[in-house]
Design goal:
Blueprint lengths: L1 H36 L3 H5 L3 E9 L5 E9 L3 E8 L2 E8 L3 E5 L5 E4 L2 H6 L19 E10 L2 E9 L5 E6 L6 E7 L3 E2 L3 E2 L8 E11 L5 E8 L6 E8 L12
Amino acid sequence: MVRKASFLFLLALMTGSLFKAASAQTVDEVINNHVNALGGKDKLASIQSVYLEGVAVMQNGAEINSKIWKVQDKLYRREISFGMGNMVVLATDKKGWRSNPQNGGAFEALPDDAVKNMQAEMDCSGPLVNYAAKGHKAELLGREDINGTSCYKIKLTLKTGQEITYFVDPTTWYVVRESRKGGGMMMGGGRRGGAGADTEVKIDYSNYKKTDDGFIIPMTVTPVGMGGSMNIEKVEVNKPVDAALYQPK
C-alpha cells in the first residue's frame, strides 16, 4: 500500500511537471504559428517603418480620418481629422505630446506613464515577435470564444509592466482581438482619453491582406463596443519618414 501510494504520488508529480512543460511549449508554438502566418520572423524583423491611412465611419455618420506613422523604437504619431477639428498624438522613445483642438491645437505633454505605455506602439513587427529577446513574458491562458471562434488566449507582460492579452485564431493564426487596460489604444493607436487604470479596451482585427511588399496587415480595426471600424486605405512599409514628424507640430 505504501509503495502504491508513493508510486501514485511520484506519477502525479511527473504528470504535473510534464503538463507545465507542455504549457510552456504550447505558448511558444502558438506564437511561432502566428509569426509564420504573417510571413516569418525575418520578414517581420525587416520592418523599420510603417505608414497607414484609414477612415472610420461612426454610428452617427461622422467620418474620422487617421494618418499613422511608426518608426521602430523611435516614433509613434497619429494625426486625426474629425468634425470638430484635428488632433495629434505623438510619442518618441523619450517624450510624448497631444494636441488639444479645444485649445487652438496647442500641444500638451503626455504623462510619463502614457509615454511608457505607448512604447509598444513603436514596435513595427509587434510585441509578440521575438518577445523574449525584447524582455517580455508570455503566458497561455487557454482558449476563449471570440465572435464564434475558440481562440488561444495569450497574456503578454511587456518589460514596461504593461499587459496585453491577444486572442489568436487557430485556423489562420492571426490575432483577431487584443485587450489592454489603463486607457488602452483605439482604432490604430490613439489613447482613449479619461479611461482609468482598470478600464479595459478591446480591439478587433480582421480583413487581413498582403501588401505589394508581402507584408500582411489587418485592414479593418474595430474598437469593441464603441462603434465605428477603421478601414485601412493606404499602407507603406520602410518608406523614409520626415524628421519634422518627431516634433510636436
